[in-house]
Task: structure prediction
Amino acid sequence: MSRRTDVSEAAQRGAEAAELVTRAKRGDSNAFDELVRKYRPRVYALALHLTGQESDADDITQDAFLKAYHKLPEFEGRSEFFTWIYRITLHRALNAKRDKSRRRTVPFDDPRLIAAVAVDAQGDPERAAQLRDRYRALLEAFDRLSPLLQTTVVLTTLQGLSYKEAAVVLETSEGTIAWRIHEARRKLRVYLKGLDEGLGRARRRPMSDSAVHRLEKALMQLIPMAPTPAAAP
Result:
């Protein structure tokens, strides 16, 4: 698919969302239901990537759409609806993280870990056992990143937003987005190298960039795995 096709499809999606917003503002509840249906999987995945807790992600998703529903008359359409709902979700998710003590370890029942291992292991129990420890360490490294670096990685790498789109959501420049991605990867490499050396396996099987890329690819599956959307408020 060409870049021109990607742009035209994005423009079409934006126009469709704008039409739904207009109808919802006029009192068409079905239009807002459709907005929820279209964007809830990505909003839920965004919250889940940042919190690592299904219950928190579900609460944040509901809160985000409830706030959007009540604030819809104030939405002026200067940005796309997905940009607006992403900002609401990010603020809610980051507040939730600050309200809780920062975890230093990722539990084995972390939904991100379960999903990533299931996708990458492809039913092989031995491979699943190997991946579980490696991906757990990678997720712990990710959770140690600053909120700004985490959100930038999630939006671009795991949600598939372009640097331009992520810059709009985070209200910064494309250059800043590029720097944050570079810095996040650098910090992940440093942390994982230290972990490998600390475990005495620096010369055996260090966690390379390819492991990070495989984890990212697996975690992208959290978007279609999001729960079925509920009805609008």
Q: What stands out?
A: Residues 195 and 201 are 9 Å apart (CA to CA). The chain has one domain: 3-222. The domain at 3-222 is CATH 1.10.1740.10 (Rna Polymerase Sigma Factor; Chain: A).
